[in-house]
Amino acid sequence: ARRGKVASVAEIQAGDVEGAVAAGAFLLDVRRAAELAETGRIPGAHNIAHTRLLDRIGEVPKGKPVVVYCRTGRRSAYAAGLLDRLGYRATSVAGGIESWTARGGAVVTA
């Protein structure tokens, strides 16, 4: 990969999130807390804003796949790329929580 180019990040479809989590993946929401308060989050998701991810990397378990999402997929692709470079097996949810809710996926608030 050329320097400065973001490596292509593995993507998962919104419809495959529940299966990945059931199989043991760590679900990570990288939006800001204010966004979560507004729209809720996918059940079981852990929240670490993408801007705080490096500071809080110890909260992300190393030995399991990580499924990352944001609102539309842009920040999660960035975060998944970062996790990848740090040795995690990370995938970004294509279309983010918007594609999750468009499919009728449940969200929880609080």
Could you describe the 3D structure shown?
- It is a single chain.
- This protein has 110 residues and is α/β, with parallel strands linked by helices.
- It has four helices and five strands.
- It has a five-stranded parallel beta sheet.
- It is globular, with a radius of gyration of 13 Å.
- The mean pLDDT is 92.
The count of helical stretches stands at: 4
Number of strands: 5
Low-confidence stretches: none
The rounded Rg comes to 13 Å
The fraction of residues assigned to DSSP E strands is 5-15%
Give the helix level as a range of percent. 25-40%
Reading side by side through the largest sheet, how are the strands ordered?
Answer: 1-5-4-2-3
What is the element string, with H for helices and E for strands?
A: EHEHEEHEH
Which descriptor suits the 3D outline? globular
Mean pLDDT: 92
Main sheet? 5 strands, parallel
The helix/strand class is: alpha/beta
From the N-terminal CA to the C-terminal CA, the straight-line distance is 41 Å
Short description:
29% of the residues lie in helices and 15% in strands.
Describe the SSE topology:
Layout: E1 11-12, H1 17-22, E2 26-29, H2 33-39, E3 46-47, E4 66-69, H3 74-85, E5 90-93, H4 96-102
Parallel strand pairs: 1-5, 2-3, 2-4, 4-5
Tags for this model:
5 strands, 15% strand, 110 residues, 5-stranded parallel sheet, 4 helices, alpha/beta, 29% helix
